[in-house]
Amino acid sequence: MKNKSFKLLIYGLSAFFVSFINVAFATGHPESNDSSVVASGFKLRTIVIDAGHGGRATGASGAYSLEKNVTLAIALKLQQAVQKEIKDLNVLMTRTTDVFVNNGLRAVMANENKANLYISLHCNSLPNVRKVVNGKTVSVPNRSGKGVLLLVNIFRRSGEQVAAIMENQFAEEEKAYSKKEVEALSPEDAITLNIFRDKYRKQSIHFANLVNNEFVNTDGRNSLGVIEQGVQVLAQTSMPSILVETGFINNPEEEDYLNSDEGQNEIVNSIVRAIKQYKREVEQVPQ
Asked: Could you give all domains of the chain from N- to C-terminal order, each with its CATH number?
């Protein structure tokens, strides 16, 4: 059993590295002092919109709504908006209905389609707090959370990719889906991987800041900022990737906003504006 798990782990790491390098060479990103600019002739062709959770994975919950339903509603509106306003951009959805999609497969779908940008949509929530009431310690809901949060996967420790793969409950299914042969990395490939991994990290942070600025400056939303941390759904993607915590679903005011057409449209429009700005920059189109 241990030997089988070890083989699956090695496969996952190799497939991730190979996919990373293949996509990097396909997009032709050279190193640049400006992380938002790439080689002349580059086109932002495909983005992935990922509605977080789904199916049995309900995600966080509010008084009357579930994260999986809110993220799907926003994702579908974002898909329509991008297709309408950025006609030369292909949109790939990780799900369009209430189905469960494993995090590893979401990344494989993006990698296989050579996507140039990955946007994962989620809702935030705070855990209960312990308080003493009438001499007894009880668990009390914490509904004080407010605002957006942008997450970028941190690459400080390569072990985070290992952890993400080990947590994948569908390694064999993912292997069948990707149909990639395991290849050994040469020292040169390993160096290339690190170069492009750093490039994608910088571009992810830059795009996350563009989205955050739209939320704050245009919509007047409170923001917890752009944070780097280990994010499983982003760890195996081989392109600039961000996770958008659109609001705190367990805060009554934010839950109403996240479920309203007005709130969802504001979120969508801000992300679309950020995509347009990012697209202009990476394609070196003068404003």
From this structure: 2-282 (3.40.630.40)
